Amino acid sequence: MVIISEYQEEEERSSDEVVAAAAKGQEVEAAKEKEQKDQEENIPNDGNGMDLEKYSWTQDLQEVNVSVPVPTGTKSRFVTCDIKKNHLKVGLKGQPPIIDGELHKAVKPDECYWNIEDQNTISILLTKLHQLEWWKCIVKGDPEIDTKKVEPESSRLSDLNPETRKLVEKMMFNQSQKSKGLPTSGDIEKQELMKKFMSEVNS
What we know:
The protein has 3 helices and 8 strands; from the N terminus they run αββββββββαα. By secondary structure, the chain is an alpha+beta fold.
């Protein structure tokens, strides 16, 4: 009877170990799925912004465009849109705001405007105060994109003046280098200066 009891205990232990291993495997798999989902959620949309439940947004280096869906037939007089240097509040009168928070980066309020498109979308244009910077989100606390995955429209570089174009190309180069774990233009310049310095010292 003792032998049978010991055998049963051994069987139960083995069974528990199998269950524990399976549970651990499921946890690892779930963690992988969550990581993959998070990565997918951080990927910018085609306009280098993000599509959210209540609104979507796109951007280029100078401006950000926000689209807020509203009931069909909405008129301008029903809309409340307050754009400040560091704050955005958008919604319909008499209802809780759809967007209300501190902007990710500052804007130029005098160069921002909004209008109703097709009587079903509030379209907001925000002019960035610090241009040549990519935004991660519209208001702080909202989901963010991975700005390393932003893809600038190279075709539009030709529209920029030479000085701005040079800055953008440098920024794009540095972004590409960082994503590959390679030295940026600043790192390369430092390396060249060090080489020059060492060659002068040794000569």
